[in-house]
Amino acid sequence: MSDPSYQPAAGGGPSGPRAGFWRRFAAAFLDGLILGVIGFIGGVILGSDNAANVAGLLLGIAYYTYLEGSTGQTLGKKALGIRVIDLKGGGSIGYGRAFIRYIGRFVSGIVLLLGYLWMLWDKEKQTWHDKFANSVVVPEPAYPVSG
Fold first, then answer.
1. CA separation for the pair 12, 126 (Å, rounded)
2. CA distance linking residue 21 with residue 127, whole number of Å
3. Phi, psi at residue 84, to the nearest 5°?
4. pLDDT digits (tens, 9 = 90+) for 103-143
5. CB 7 within 8 A of CB 89
6. Residue range 81-98, pLDDT digits in tens
7. Residue in 29, 15, 13, 28 with CA at minimum distance from that of residue 142
8. Exposure class string for 78-115: b at 16+ Cβ within 10 A, else e
9. 105, 100, 87, 86: which is closest to 32 by C-alpha?
10. Which of 50, 59, 96, 135 is 20 to 30 A from residue 4's alpha carbon, by CA?
11. Contact by Cβ (8 Å): 116, 127
């Protein structure tokens, strides 16, 4: 689902407004708190560390895949006014690419979080997991959620 008002730039530089590092960090922190509280409650209910870890992983996959694949906004992103969109078309990245983006977060964190910091010098402000999913994170007012 492409956004007809989205126009990628020709040549270098970002093809539009991008969310900054600290907004993305704060959104990720909020999402971590939300999932951490739910995971803690689930761990108490399940009792087993292994079961709680598997449940936490499945919860994270479902949370990020569904929310980023549909509106592009997790609860943390919504609170900070940012969203994930397709780099080329500006619309939703869909569930398959949202899942790839989620798995890519682990790769982004492997080498001293270098994949997360990559956005600081990347011309499109993409992290590694953004690159894996061909997505960008943008301010929501510049690319509003339709519907």
1. 14
2. 10
3. -95, 135
4. 999 999 999 999 999 999 999 999 999 999 999 999 999 99
5. no
6. 999 999 999 999 999 999
7. 15
8. bebebbbbbbeebbbbbeebbbbbbebbeebeeeeeeb
9. 105
10. 96
11. yes
